[in-house]
Structure formats: C-alpha cells, structure tokens
C-alpha cells in the first residue's frame, strides 16, 4: 500500500517531471499473486489492482483504514481488464468477463479474486467511503448506459460505457465506466473539463506495444503532462483537467468519488482557452 496526499494547485505549478509522476502516476498496479492499493487523500479514493496467478486473493483490510475488514465503511467497483475470471462476495461467485464490472456495497465482509482458467485475469478497482449499504451487482455491457461521442474529424470518436453510475446501479459516491477510442482517434475528454465537487482517476489499457498515452493535467491555464504506458493509472484533483492523447487508439477506465453523482456535472473548458 502507498499513500498520496492532496496537492495545492499553486504548488503544482512548480513541479518537475519526476515530481509530477511521483505524486500522480500509479505505475505498478498489477503484481503476481498480489493486491496493490494506492490510498489517496482526494476524497479518500483507493485505486488498486489484483492479479491472482497461482492462487485466489482475498481482499484484506489495510492499516490506514483502521477497520476490521476492507468494506466495513467502504464500497468498491471492480472491472476485469484481463482474461475471464470471477470474484466471490460473501460466498456468492460472480463471473467477470473482459470489461465487465462488479459493484460491491458497504459491509460485505469477504471479497476474493480468483485466477482465470484461460489466461491472466486482471482486476482493476476503485474504492470510496460509503455512508449506506447498497446491493452487490454485476454490470455487463448490455446493462451499461452507452453513449457515442466525438468524431473522426476531431480525432476523438469514442464510445463511453457508464457501468457503475447511479442511473445503472445505486451507489453512495463511487462512479466508474470505460471509454473506448475508435481506430484513427486518439483524444479523450476533449474539449476538457474540471469538476470541483469530485476527483477522478484514469486507468489506461489496451495501449498497443511500443505505444504511449500523453495524459494532461493541471489547471486549464497552467497545464502539465505525464507520459503513460499500458495498465497504468493517474490521479486527477478536482481543480485539474483530465485529458489525454495517444500515439494510437486505446481504452481507459474513469473512476470518480465526491459529493455529486450527476455525471453531467462538469465545468467545461473551451479548447482554445487551454494553455
């Protein structure tokens, strides 16, 4: 487990490349037969990954939570970004195919990630504090709220699949989904936006070998960037834009936590106003 603290935007303006990467980039999410956790002070979101290879992995509590079990005061969203696998929640097993999601509510005591029988299952998850208990639910592509956005002319033709949001499954504050860039398109979340009422984390995957994504962050008039590889995540404070452009098309998972569950609650920024 590692911890990330909140950063003031005025301080961020003076960060070097190495400092930006240290504070916002999460590089080693998936490790053999291990569960990783990054605990952030942005809305207390936890960004993590589980990679069971030779054995099932139980989601244990971590010291920073000061809880008897991981979900005692939390909810969690899981999306499988590897081979087909399954997750057991308090004795009930939920098969998860590639890009399928599982929401698990507060007070579920035992969560177990199982290896795949036909490859390597990779479970990406976000967890946020929860004030109420909602039912565990698997969300397939058919159940997701799907939106087509952008165009090839502006290099941002993409499919947005809202998997764990309040119009699909009830949650306390956690929202998750994924966006797939179509061939020939490279820009995500463009035009960009901020939302002062919640933070966000992006997880980039399906980046072809030897290709990269340049993720943009910072205040709209004071932007910076981070070059990212496949299966890496990045944190976005409420005051920061969160946008990216790849050397190829790719897919990314967005996860949000905060006080507002309205997906459309965004403070838009005109592309021509970026600096």
From TrEMBL:
This is 4-deoxy-L-threo-5-hexosulose-uronate ketol-isomerase. GO terms for molecular function: 4-deoxy-L-threo-5-hexosulose-uronate ketol-isomerase activity. Its EC number is 5.3.1.17. The gene is kduI. Zn(2+) binds at residues 193, 195, 200, 242. Belongs to the KduI family. Its cofactor is Zn(2+). Binds 1 zinc ion per subunit. Pathway: Glycan metabolism; pectin degradation; 2-dehydro-3-deoxy-D-gluconate from pectin: step 4/5. It comes from the Bacteria. Catalyzes the isomerization of 5-dehydro-4-deoxy-D-glucuronate to 3-deoxy-D-glycero-2,5-hexodiulosonate. Coiled coil: none annotated.
């Amino acid at each position: 487990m590692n911890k990330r603290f909140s950063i003031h935007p005025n301080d961020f303006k003076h960060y070097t490349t190495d400092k930006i990467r240290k504070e916002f980039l999460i590089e080693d999410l998936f490790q053999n037969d291990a569960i990783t956790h990054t605990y952030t002070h942005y809305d207390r979101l936890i960004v993590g990954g589980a990679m069971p290879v030779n054995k099932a992995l139980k989601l244990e509590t971590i010291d920073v939570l000061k809880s008897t079990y991981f979900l005692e005061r939390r909810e969690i969203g899981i999306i499988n970004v590897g081979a087909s696998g399954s997750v057991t929640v308090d004795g009930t097993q939920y098969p998860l195919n590639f890009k399928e999601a599982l929401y698990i509510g507060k007070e579920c005591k035992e969560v177990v990630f199982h290896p795949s029988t036909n490859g390597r299952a990779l479970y990406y998850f976000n967890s946020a504090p929860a004030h109420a208990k909602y039912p565990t639910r698997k969300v397939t592509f058919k159940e997701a709220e799907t939106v087509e956005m952008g165009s090839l002319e502006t290099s941002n033709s993409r499919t947005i699949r809202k998997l764990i949001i309040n119009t699909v499954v009830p949650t306390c504050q956690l929202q998750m989904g994924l966006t797939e860039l179509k061939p020939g398109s490279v820009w995500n979340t463009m035009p960009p936006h901020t939302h002062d009422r919640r933070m966000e984390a992006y997880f980039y995957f399906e980046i072809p070998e030897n290709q990269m994504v340049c993720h943009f962050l910072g205040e709209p008039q004071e932007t910076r960037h981070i070059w990212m590889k496949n299966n890496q995540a990045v944190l976005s404070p409420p005051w920061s834009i969160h946008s990216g452009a790849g050397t190829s098309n790719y897919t990314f998972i967005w996860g949000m936590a905060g006080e507002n569950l309205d997906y459309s609650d965004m403070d838009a920024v005109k592309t021509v106003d970026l600096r």
